[in-house]
Write the structure tokens for this entry.
Amino acid sequence: MIITVASGKGGTGKTTVATNLAFSLADHVQFLDCDVEEPNAHLFLKPALGEKQRVFTPVPVVDETACSYCRKCAEICRFRAITVLGKKVLTFPEMCHSCGGCMEICPERAITETGRELGVIEEGRRDDIGFVHGRLRVGEAMAPPLIRKVLSHVLPGKVNIIDAPPGTSCPVITAMRGADFVLLVTEPTPFGLHDLKLAVETVKILGLPRGLIINRAGIGDDGVKEYAEEEGLPVLMEIPFERSIAEACSRGRLVVEALPGWKEEFLELFRRIRKTIGWKEVGAR
Amino acid sequence: MRELVVVSGKGGTGKTSLTAAFASLARSMVLCDADVDAADLHLLMDPSIRRQEDFQGGGTAVIDRERCTACGLCLDLCRFDAIGSDYGVNRIDCEGCGVCVDFCPEKAIAFPARTCGEWFASETRFGPMVHARLGIAEENSGRLVTLVRQEARKIAETRNLDLIITDGPPGLGCPVIASIGGASALLIVTEPSVSGLHDMERVVQLAAHFKVPGMVCVNKFDLNPGQAEAIERLAKEKKIQVLGRIPFDPVITEAMVGGKTVFEYDAGSRAGRAVRRIWDQIAASPAIRTASDEFRRSIP
């Protein structure tokens, strides 16, 4: 089972929800932080992390002794990652999408591939929770291939909780695909509402079951609730704006550790999700 | 001409509310919303759209089943698993590399450009604004960011405006990189939490990587003054100018609900006064202070 926690707007509490849900279930949980641009879940779950595994994407290297400067590679590349200037081939690895077209088209077989580092994957554990996150290399533009690498650690038969990046474009789609349920988190403000609508459209494109958590309930206005009702989007939980919660989060403490009463709320949230998708395999402890 | 780009790494730290507030304080500027993926600045700026254009992204493969002989070459060549065994192309998976198009022996694959979104040139009560909307689930956010920044620059040049204020996207990847290249300065808006500190550290590295000077302010600092100090210490270590702190103040949300900037809503509020002090420092900073400011200052 895969539950992906997402939101259009950043900073609405995705990581808070994902980490507290994982910690409340405790057993049979695999946690995957797919917000590889700014991974934060480890700051809350505090897993013991193992060795860094570097992740690469293939980019071309040209053997100029074999090159006939026919320019076919430059013509096929839609990303302007390779070009020929007179008797010189220039590659721009950071522009390359690793499609392999240049290598395939080269009549002289002068192109091979090397790796551009996308970032690292780290695996670890916190008690019975398996933990994996990706960390995009600073300066690297392409998050999706690294996200896919994190997702390759999904464990069938366990409850996989995925912390997705914000937004509605390719990194989010990559993180959301394959989910059994998307848990959207928003705050009840005009920005929160606007970006929630975009997030709901994104989930609809993928045709996934979904529910809403309203975080910082009490600030802002009623727009989010009214929209959820019109849209038939079930509000599965409300987390009020309280200083004690905000302070716990600011210190890297889990809400369910700082305020133990919340554990039952998160377990109830899980039961509601499970009921929605009719999943019965492994129960929460 | 100078461009200030407001970024944060972590989302939800207050980039857009601050950008809007600065727009109401700065004179003669162009606003640019580079968060094309989840743009919110228009909710406070109420722009009247004067020009609306489609944004053409790259191509997507479309297989003509009549001509396809099911030879399987495209399936072998596609590294993105975008072509199904029935020779249908999954739009979401297609990377737009065109390798299948070029190698198909039957020339059965078309590659039409797709409209990935739209962008707008508008007028607001504080000046011109360029903004965009990337289509849901689309790629090429970096190219659209580059486009809105170029259009903002053109408007600034045509109208002889000194400054562009750009609301950046969260994160660190493609749209952020596209937002900061060539900027005069970054304002990194952070919040006093372990996540805020962690994410700021990475944005500071990114700013250094692209050699753009950074400045930092801590929003909602009183939610955890200890973390605010840790952030300011880190900034000083990295030789980043610390501009100050903004208290947690419900007027920021109230202003947002009212569709106003914090200055229009309550200029004398604690947050309002703090934001003004921060803006004064930005306007006076070497990276943003413009030649015409120098000229004005030189007049007794």
